[in-house]
Amino acid sequence: MTSSAPSILATCKQTRFHLLDDNPSQEVAETTQDIDVAGLSIVVASSALDSAEDATKTKVKGKSKAKAEGKELIADGHLRLKAGIHYGLLGRNGTGKSTLLRAMAEKLIPGIPHPTRIAILQQTDQDEQGINAGLSQDRTVLEHVLSSDESKNEAVRKANLLSKAFETEDPLEPVRTIRKIRHQQTEMQLFLAQRNASLKSGARGLQARKDLKAAELKVDASGELLSQDANQIDAETVQTDTQAAVETLQDLQSRLEDMKLSDMEHQARRILLGLGFSESGLDKKVSTLSGGWRMRCMLASVLVQDPDIMILDEPTNFLDLLGVVWLEKYLQQLRDRSETTILLVSHDRDFINAVCEEIVILRDQKLNYFRGNLSAYEQDFEEQKLYWGRMKEANDRQMAQMEASIRESVKVGKKTNDDNKLRQAKTRQKKVDDRMGLQVNAKGGRFKLNRDLVGYHLKSRADIEVPTDEKGALMSLPDATELRFPGPLVSLEGITFKYKNNDRIILEDVNLVVHIGDRVGIMGLNGSGKTTLVRVLTGGIPSSKGKVTTHSRLKVGYYGQHSVEELQDRGRIEPSLTALALLMAEVEGSLNEGEVRGLLSSMGLAGRVVSDVPVSKLSGGQLVRLALARIVWSAPQLLILDEITTHLDFNTVTALASALSSFNGAILLVSHDRFLIRSVIEGKRDIEHKLDDDFEGLEQEETEETKTRRRSVYVLKNGKMIEQQKGVEQFEQSLVKRVQKMLVGL
Length: 746
Known about the structure:
Elements: E1 7-11, H1 14-17, E2 35-45, H2 48-55, E3 70-81, E4 86-90, H3 97-105, E5 118-121, H4 141-146, H5 150-167, H6 173-199, H7 202-226, H8 235-259, H9 261-274, H10 291-303, E6 309-313, H11 321-337, E7 341-345, H12 349-355, E8 358-363, E9 366-371, H13 374-416, H14 419-434, H15 449-452, E10 490-497, E11 507-514, E12 519-523, H16 530-537, E13 545-550, E14 556-559, H17 563-573, H18 579-587, H19 593-602, H20 608-611, H21 620-632, E15 638-642, H22 650-661, E16 666-670, H23 674-681, H24 698-702, E17 711-717, E18 720-723, H25 728-742
Parallel strand pairs: 4-7, 4-8, 5-6, 6-7, 12-16, 12-17, 14-15, 15-16
Antiparallel strand pairs: 1-2, 2-3, 8-9, 10-11, 10-13, 17-18
Helix pairs in contact: 5-6, 5-8, 6-7, 6-8, 11-25, 13-14, 17-21, 18-19, 22-23
């Protein structure tokens, strides 16, 4: 890590008082899989050096505090995970979800015991080397997945070392090997002792420093034994160490037999096939895979393990709908046959709802929990908002009446010198100050001041707080430019396409007509030709056969799969380039700076973000908004969006769905996101998922005098474009049947 690389500083109440049960000398740790870390704070500092310097700052009003300068993402939170439960982690982009997951995986949080086995699939869209991290380029796909379990790898490594030692004719080789293994274990004990000593203070800190000194002595003694000359080792020691090597080898071999490596290979193959790999693809070198397939390989590497905690950060990215449905069913099966805890982040609402049993909400630097899936959480949230809203309205009305009565009593009392009136007003004012507010306690019963008001210094009830919606930044699209004469925007007639020197037909006799206001959704498996169809439609490549006709005044806004990557590349080439400067250059004077700022603001980018933050520093979600601004500034009549949800959180996907629903032009949407297709293309308000109030769907169209716009969902399969009469549901059900066959015996 370079000195300029951001680092994570995590502290918690366990920092001083938690008894670490880390014992690396045990090959299999008998630890609980539950995680319960109170008082968690996570700060992202500018560098590791800054973190170290800031953490040493002490003596704040007589108390020792470690406070790093940087962005605080979580403050006094409570991380609580139960074994075997599948959790969905929710939070807006930039709130620290990925940072929390990384801190857990790297065990930077003191309350997570070292023996806890954690497997993680990380988001890598912002990291140039991230997709390659942890991938062995020279191995085949299957070999890489089989080598992903670190505990198994360590056992295999030690067993191989000991086996080779016994195969030699040198009787001292087993002695040297077992001493080498022991020395590595003592070095790990020293590392944990150093971490323990750095986290504790007071009496426990004194004991931790004593343990650290003992660990240092053990490492020194182990090192001396490791470097001991063969002539100095007596026969009794040779016999003792050789017997220890034999017992260690037998234990390792027994563990490896329990792991059932042959079963692991069978499972790895089934997982890779479920994620879209072909049988021949399993023997391909990892170095030959594209970024999307490498991410699938990394996902398979996580799924094949049997960790205590499995962390999945946007696992559905780069998966087609078949892969998403397969992963849903696989994780549901895992819930029934394994005690693995799963913590996942996803922008796919349907996926979260199907997989997760409980929800963790990261909001306002705190972690809150809800027992139930996403749809149940959203329903409960709306009920809570209604309940507390009504209570606050009633409380405000009562207070207004009492304050009016107080003013009248004071007025009359002063006018008539009536002390009783003034005392009465003072008593009522005290009731307004102390007794008005929260009317129920934490258990839902009637609030009693002497029982439920915590803290002797508190004299009045807390104010009633009405929950507010946790939405992504609102988005709105400019109206499409009016056409001077009617007609279809684009027409595809008998389109056939195949690459040269290739007999495989990608598109065959595709016909499509799009008018202003139409909503067309295109779905299909990866490699079915969706992006090829879009490129033919936009003129990116010519068709092999057929005709493409467009309106003479047509303006198209095209968001491609690689729009975000193109912006990232541009940001690396021009490190000082901002979103405002980029868009000002592209509009070429058609809009002034105020209008460009207004456009960016309507996409959810405002203030200093557009003028001071370089494009290279923007998050994935911000880059999506910038890419949208680049294609809508000219007010196109046709929007073509190819996998636009990849970098968005699900709140922003909701805001995007509402913005697209009210767009008066035509939309051609290519996506695997079932929620987005249902809402934007089919115009349906999901019963399970709440949309913004300004969403315009079928209900609004039925009340309009104008003709209902055309809404069609197509599936590309074997080059043919097949309309789905029942929409997304029809395609999804066909995939569910395939997945059920694939999961038999897994």
